[in-house]
Amino acid sequence: MTKVAIFMGSISDEDKMAPCAEVLGSLGIPHLFTVASAHRTPERVQRLVRELEDQGCKVFICAAGMAAHLAGAVAAKTTRPVLGVPLTASSLGGLDALLATVQMPPGFPVGTVALDSAGARNAAWLAAQILALEDPELAEKLRANRQKMIDGVEKAAADLRARHPGSAG
Question: What is the mean pLDDT of residues 23-47?
Fold first, then answer.
């Protein structure tokens, strides 16, 4: 069963969104990674949302640049959480996509994360946290991953102190 659906507005977004699929995969979360454009294929978007909901999908992650209407189009068709990843795709450096993704009308929210690959990763982590509310095993995986991140920072700090013994940190 697909628990998370990742929609990209264009295949050219794949490199920026691949980290999202990688994080979900590393956590063992079944997901769909596909292209569905709010403007070029609105019927596909609507059909996929309906089919995926029927199959038990819990969270939708939508990535798009420029007008970035994809997350809003999905939010209009579901009451499941929708996470938007704005992508840099124009001379405006992603500001256009960020504003389009974050400015949703009341009642049709989109949880908006950072731009590009960092946002893709955080969308996956946030989707996992949402799913972990009802999945203790996944919640433990998240805790273990977070501890690895903490341990990595502690090790880096210790290594830095060892290389710079006169430092007060």
Answer: 98
pLDDT tens-digit profile of 80-104?
Answer: 999 999 999 999 999 999 999 999 9
Chain centre to alpha carbon of residue 82: 9
CA distances from 107 to 64, 75, 103, 135, 143 (A): 21, 9, 12, 27, 32
Residue 84 β-bridge partners: 62, 112
Distance CA 113, CA 81 (A): 13
User: Do the beta carbons of residue 112 and residue 98 sit within 8 Å?
Assistant: yes
CB 72 within 8 A of CB 102: no
**Closest CA relative to residue 3, chosen from 129, 100, 120:** 129
65 pLDDT exceeds 80? yes
Question: Residue 167: pLDDT above 90?
Answer: no
Could you tell me the CA-to-CA distances from 29 to 10, 56, 137, 138 in Å, in that order? Answer: 23, 13, 11, 9
Nearest Cα to Cα of residue 98 among 109, 113, 108, 118 = 113
Beta strands in the chain, from DSSP E residues, in sequence order: 4-8, 31-35, 59-65, 82-87, 111-112
pTM for the structure as a whole: 0.95
Strand 59-65 with 82-87, pairing: parallel
